[in-house]
Amino acid sequence: MIDFLARGLSAVRRRAGLILSALAATSGLLGMAPARAQEGDVYRFSPVNQYGIAVTAAYWNPIMAYVSEKSGVKLQLKIGRTSADTTAYVLAQEVEFIFSNHLFSPEREGLGWKVFGRRLTPPVHSQILVPIESPITELGQLAGKEVAFPGPEALVAYKFAAAQLMTRKIDFKTVFGGNMDGAFGQLFSGKAAAVGANSQLAEGYTRREGRKFRVLWQSQPLHDLALMSASKVPDKVQKAVAAAFLGMHADPKGRAVLTQASAQVGLGEEAYFIASDGSEYAGYRDFYRNAPASLR
């Protein structure tokens, strides 16, 4: 149930997609047909690449299988090589459902996406981190140094963090890792002195990999990413998919899927999906009103 092959991708990306599709097939996650969906009715779901591609698939594929079966709507996971690639699919209207916080700028809110849910987790923060053993103890020491970020579309991990450094007039060099795990890899390989991060993903990385961080700065609390549907999705389909996501934790089978998936990324068992009308994302909208022009 995963499609990494998109028109216009390079040959390298095509080969990566074939490999990952094969991996998904061997895990039994491809080719599962929802009982009530008509043949050919497929809706694409694109979550932001918060982790490497394999870990992203390990989290989302079981959830996609459950929601497809429960709702009777075939959902297909569609992600690019990087978070920027995945967001490009969204902006090109190549997908119908997303899990993202990349659409809260004034321009993108005009595209017609509707928030119907969010993941219930403790508040997240934008953070600027260094390894716990680093001699760097304050932001000013990052002047002239490389700082790693997931990618240019990462609102919490890149834009919030970079804005803080720019506001303090700290001259830093930007390095993009493609996703959060890639940025952490840049940090711990010594290619970057610090990393802009989403606190939830940093905590999950510590649980998965055992690496510890020192926090140099963090933002005000923010909500986790939003579940959203495109305006072109039929109302009946949108409601069926929303009901399946929002009811997962109350269904023993759905709860088991969430527990298994959350363990793959270092989330707690309490991480499940709840209803949202989008009003909780005022902090993201406020950012765009005050951020440096280059980050809007």
UniProtKB/TrEMBL annotation:
The lineage of its organism: Bacteria, Pseudomonadati, Pseudomonadota, Betaproteobacteria, Burkholderiales. This is PhnD/SsuA/transferrin family substrate-binding protein. It comes from Leptothrix discophora. Keywords: Signal. Residues 1-37 form the signal peptide.
